[in-house]
């Protein structure tokens, strides 16, 4: 892995190294001789070593920058690799979506294209006439006031009269500024810049700053911006030149350059520009001036823009095979969490980071690291509250929280204990259910309303609206949180959650909204585990059972499975068992025993265990062929799933609690098969020989033995003893009438 960055070496990264200087000089004294306040023309910079300000000029020998290059149009990036970006792609390069591309530093595109003509012909004509008059006035002014000065300046390219160059540069700047000529539309701009660049080999720092002032005033871009920023950086390295930066408005222009330059297209130029600012802040007077000019706000804006670019790059790198390992090694996750906590108002940056987390939290190692970040839960809750109606962000944040809490009980507690966390989840559920009831498919009113469900990054699946996708993800978080007993009981005590979740079941059709429905029922199931402990909530339990009946009668196996789980909790109460029996739910559970779906069979057995507590409901099991089906389950899955075998035995134990005759209760053939199976399964060597032989290690063998003993052996032995105790070769006599 790359060597971790030493904080002491950060300056190496922030500012590139200029050409080699005399090692005997330093920024603040310590030089071996008098400093020369001059800057040579050669200022090409190697980006390797640590820069330092010196009191002596560098020697010549590097590449010169005295050339002016024509500027090219900037490019607006098209955004992400998907449907989310809606930028306009032009020829050339690209910039990441979400990074503002300043119009003033961007392109020389033609504003008079047909696509932009929205005004009437008369207005367009008047505007054109006004623009022509302004251009004519500027031409006349240039010919009269500026051209003589520029011509004289051009004549000094060989003579190099630095005093006169300084005077002319100041006069030209003042003249151009007075008539608003510092624009890219000013037709003499290119000629003036060419003249200026030919003079950049003078040695006087003060003169160079005057010339740089003119170049920056024209808001150049590309190589021209890079060259002038190198020049200013070079002058700023020598602290003897500090007083020159307090003259006129060079500091204003530097800050304006930082504000308007594209951090992607002009990244190297900005490094030099910020490097110059960094040097200059060592001067107390300049520091005060920069503070008055709101330098902090300017640099903060640049920092936000850079963060967006970095986050966009990291999002793509998170998909690489080695990306996760690098994320963990270099504490990228912790840095991203700090950004989320520091800049919550920047929704674009937050969206980039949430996309990164939605990718990496699909993996347990990254999930664990993120779950242990101290600021993680505060940042997530704060963002959910702050950007409630920005569904693209909310859905990803909830997706990540669902990943964190699916297996990590510590994460469930930490999220629960965060201030306003449960209230915020309830608010999200309420808000997006209201939007769904109103028929809205997205909260922000955008046109892209439907996406594929599953992974929020766009895996294939049933089309869902953006509002529904938020509901799916937030209900998943609630279901995961409810696994923890302390958290689950608190959530279950809030009737608002249950009512909102039941309203999803009541108003949605599982055929067309399967994932929304199943997530709602899963959350209801986890909460019902706690609510059913309270007999006082019987009306709520009956209402819950009534709402879920529609799923039992549907042809959707997933919906039926999740509804049956809830019935497993609700049927602890006789009132609910009576209600469900009247609606034939017990008969449906018997039917499911031969479904072939092991999970569904297991859930059906769990519900039947509770139904068999009531004597009046026991005959249905035999009448519907349930005894034979249970024996088939025991024979087919017994050796492979001791927990399921134990459930089968529990159903039969409850069913036969008032047995008089084994044959009368179970049937003659059924008794014989049960005795054979139970005798075989209760013999440890016979029951476990195959599974123990194929076990991978000792730990797996111990697990198999424990499952057999804890889940099956005791209840299986109880059932076998009962059957044998009530078996007789003689049929019992009927009682005399």
UniProtKB/TrEMBL annotation:
Gene3D superfamilies attached to this UniProt entry: Leucine-rich Repeat Variant
Disordered as annotated region, ranges: 1-141
GO biological processes: cilium organization
Low complexity composition-biased segments: 27-42, 109-130
Residue stretches of biased makeup (Basic and acidic residues): 131-141
InterPro entries, alphabetized: ARM-like, ARM-type_fold, ARMC2
UniProt protein name: Armadillo repeat-containing protein 2
Record organism: Elysia marginata
């Amino acid at each position: 892995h790359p060597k971790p960055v030493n904080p002491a070496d950060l300056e190496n990264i922030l500012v590139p190294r200029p050409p080699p200087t005399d090692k005997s000089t330093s920024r603040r004294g310590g030089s071996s001789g008098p400093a020369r306040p001059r800057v040579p023309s050669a200022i090409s910079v190697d980006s390797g070593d640590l820069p330092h300000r010196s009191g002596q000029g560098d020697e010549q020998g590097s590449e010169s920058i005295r050339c002016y290059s024509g500027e090219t149009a900037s490019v607006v990036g098209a955004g992400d690799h998907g449907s989310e970006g809606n930028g306009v792609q032009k020829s050339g390069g690209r910039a990441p979506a979400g990074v503002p591309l300043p119009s003033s530093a961007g392109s020389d595109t033609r504003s008079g294209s047909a696509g932009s003509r929205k005004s009437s012909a008369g207005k367009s004509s008047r505007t054109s006439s006004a623009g022509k008059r302004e251009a004519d006035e500027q031409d006349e002014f240039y010919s009269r006031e500026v051209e003589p000065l520029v011509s004289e300046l051009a004549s000094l390219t060989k003579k190099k009269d630095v005093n006169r160059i300084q005077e002319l540069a100041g006069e030209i700047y003042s003249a151009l500024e007075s008539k608003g000529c510092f624009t890219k539309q000013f037709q003499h701009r290119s000629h003036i810049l060419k003249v200026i660049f030919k003079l950049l080999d003078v040695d006087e720092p003060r003169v160079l700053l005057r010339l740089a002032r003119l170049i920056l005033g024209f808001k150049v871009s590309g190589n021209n911006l890079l060259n002038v920023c190198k020049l200013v950086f070079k002058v700023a390295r020598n602290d003897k030149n500090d007083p020159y930066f307090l003259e006129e408005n060079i500091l204003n222009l530097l800050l304006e350059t930082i504000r308007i330059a594209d951090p992607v297209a002009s990244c190297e130029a900005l490094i030099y520009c910020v490097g110059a600012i960094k040097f200059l802040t060592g001067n107390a007077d300049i520091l005060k001036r920069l503070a008055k000019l709101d330098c902090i706000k300017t640099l903060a804006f640049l920092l936000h823009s850079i963060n967006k670019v970095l986050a966009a790059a990291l999002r793509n790198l998170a998909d690489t095979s080695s990306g996760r390992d690098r994320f963990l090694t270099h504490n990228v996750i912790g840095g991203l969490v700090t950004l989320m906590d520091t800049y919550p108002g920047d929704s674009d940056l937050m969206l980039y980071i949430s996309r990164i987390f939605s990718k990496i939290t699909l993996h347990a190692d990254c999930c664990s690291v993120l779950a242990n970040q101290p600021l993680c839960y505060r940042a997530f809750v704060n963002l959910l509250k702050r950007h409630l109606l920005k569904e693209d962000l909310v859905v990803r944040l909830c997706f990540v929280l669902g990943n964190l809490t699916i297996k990590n009980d510590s994460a469930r507690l930490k999220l629960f204990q965060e201030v306003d966390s449960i209230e915020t989840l309830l608010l999200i559920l309420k808000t997006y259910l209201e939007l769904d009831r109103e028929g809205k498919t997205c909260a922000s009113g955008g046109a892209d309303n439907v996406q594929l469900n599953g992974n929020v990054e766009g895996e294939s699946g049933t089309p869902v609206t953006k509002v529904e996708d938020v509901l799916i993800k937030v209900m998943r978080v609630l279901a995961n949180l409810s696994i923890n007993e302390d958290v689950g009981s608190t959530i279950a005590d809030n009737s608002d959650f249950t009512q909102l979740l039941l309203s999803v079941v009541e108003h949605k059709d599982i055929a067309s909204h399967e994932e929304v429905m199943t997530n709602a029922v899963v959350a209801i199931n986890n909460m019902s585990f706690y609510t059913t402990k309270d007999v006082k909530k019987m009306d709520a339990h009956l209402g819950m059972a009534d709402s879920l009946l529609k799923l039992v009668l549907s042809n959707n196996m997933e919906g039926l499975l999740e509804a049956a789980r809830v019935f497993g909790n609700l049927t602890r109460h006789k009132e609910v068992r009576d209600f469900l029996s009247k609606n034939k739910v017990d008969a449906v559970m018997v039917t499911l025993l031969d479904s072939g779906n092991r999970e569904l069979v297991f859930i059906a057995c769990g519900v039947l265990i509770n139904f068999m507590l009531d004597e009046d409901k026991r005959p249905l099991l035999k009448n519907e062929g349930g005894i034979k089906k249970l024996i088939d389950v025991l024979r087919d899955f017994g050796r492979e799933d001791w927990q399921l075998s134990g459930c089968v035995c529990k159903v039969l134990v409850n069913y036969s609690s008032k047995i008089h005759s084994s044959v009368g209760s179970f049937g003659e053939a059924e008794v014989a098969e049960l005795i054979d199976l139970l005798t075989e399964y209760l013999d440890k060597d016979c029951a476990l020989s195959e599974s123990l032989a194929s076990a991978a290690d000792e730990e797996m063998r111990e697990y198999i033995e424990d499952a057999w003993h804890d889940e099956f052996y005791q209840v299986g032995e109880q059932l076998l003893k009962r059957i044998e105790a009530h078996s007789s070769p003689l049929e019992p006599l009927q009682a005399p009438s």
